[in-house]
Prior knowledge:
Blueprint: E1 4-9, H1 13-25, E2 28-33, H2 36-45, E3 50-54, H3 62-72, E4 77-82, H4 87-95, E5 100-103, H5 108-134, E6 139-140, E7 143-144, H6 148-160, E8 167-170, H7 177-187, E9 195-199, H8 208-213, H9 230-233, E10 238-242, H10 249-261, E11 263-264, E12 273-274, E13 278-283, H11 287-292, H12 298-304, E14 307-310, H13 320-336, E15 342-343, H14 345-353, H15 359-373, E16 378-379, H16 386-391, H17 403-415, H18 427-430, H19 447-461, H20 466-473, H21 477-490
Helix pairs in contact: 10-12, 13-15, 17-19, 19-20
Protein name: Sigma-54-dependent Fis family transcriptional regulator
Organism: Shewanella intestini
Pfam family, one: Sigma54_activat
Amino acid sequence: MAEFSVILVEDSLSLGALYSEYLCSEGGDVTLVHLGEDALNEINRQPPDLLVLDIKLPDMSGMDILAQVQKTHPDITVIMVTAHGTVDIAVDAMRSGAFDFLMKPFDSKRLAITVRNALKQRQLVKLVDSYEKSLPKTNYQGFIGESLAMQTVYKTIDCVANSKASVFISGESGTGKEVCAQAIHQAGPRNQKPFIALNCASIPKDLIESQIFGHTKGAFTGAVNQRDGAATQADGGTLFLDELCEMELELQSKLLRFIQTGVFRRVGGSRDEKVDVRFVSATNKDPWEQVVKGEFREDLYYRLHVIPVELPPLRERGKDVQLIAKKLLIQYTKEESKSFKGFSKQAENALQQYNWPGNVRQLQNVIRQIVVLNDAQLVEYDMLPVQVLKALPSVNTQSSKTGAEINQLNTADIMTHLPSQADNVPQQAQFEDASPVAVDDGPIEALWKTEKRTIEHAIDMCEGNIPKAAAMLDISPSTIYRKKQSWDDMEPQT
């Protein structure tokens, strides 16, 4: 049997020696202690796999020790032992988290069975935990999404949460930068302390220093009382500075000193104050580009940009669009007392194909608008806002043309852009041996099929290199990936 570690708490010297022998015969690495205080010290020094704990001890109750262990080391398996047991005590012990309850006297066989069962349970729990950790997370600290891009974000948050290092979050507007900052705070040891968010773009420039550091009474016109700033409010917790690149250079130098030392001075104040704050910053701009332009201090960049976290735009998150939309539909349907249950297939496809320039924030707005203005069991295609419908490809706009005319028009229109963004390759050489996409005089074909055939042809001509094919087609690689995902949904309907 594989060796396991066990702390045996037994005040009787003779019984302690006997039980130690039993446990050693089962493969246990036994540490014998006689007092409750010694047991707690040993547990804190080196937590064991098993704790065999007598209820009656000279210095404290075994039940009190069990309660403490459940708070500080809940993964330790506890077996309670007593010579004065009753059914009530046994029930209390099991409710408090003990794995089993043994009545003295007991022989080696009884203890061996209990220990083996306890070890099997530990093994099963580890297997389940390992399996659950291997599964994609759909919900995580306020985020919704199971795409690979979001799994990477979740893993990064898990890695940085317990660190004191500064985190810099970047991403387009509406991707959830404040949600990410709160997730870092909640997943870390500061989660019982304040999380203070400050949007540097929404505060007047002449007030932002006071908002961060606070001010004294009479520091400026209107300062009738002393006021704590975000730095003081976030003491012990996390200070989130959103849209940091909007901060003026003069204030950036004061912020740099604060980050380096934890020391600041209120506006109008004459003494320094010190706090313990973890910094998380965010921007929807490229911070290094702002440094190059001279609009953001390079030394402040290196202080804050220790651990970068990049949030992907919604258009690159695949089926996350549907997950988020369904979650929002349930939430808003309940709030507005409507009867929506889900989306029609056509509406789902439309949401998936739309580019979402405003990201999750725009999706929230769209779903709220649909719920408020309509009431039905399903969200239908024509319930989508006009700005979404206008941006979607239409299969009926040229219905008066023949199928061959449509195919020729679309193919020719797209193919004219093929040489436009070649990666340092002569235009004539790009498709020197390429033949035009074949079209025939068949029935009218859905536009997405023509587009699919043209894009796949470009990928084939570029030997599977999607970024190169995207450049030739004058579109972004993410557009190709997004369309390939939407085709998987469209195919079964053909």
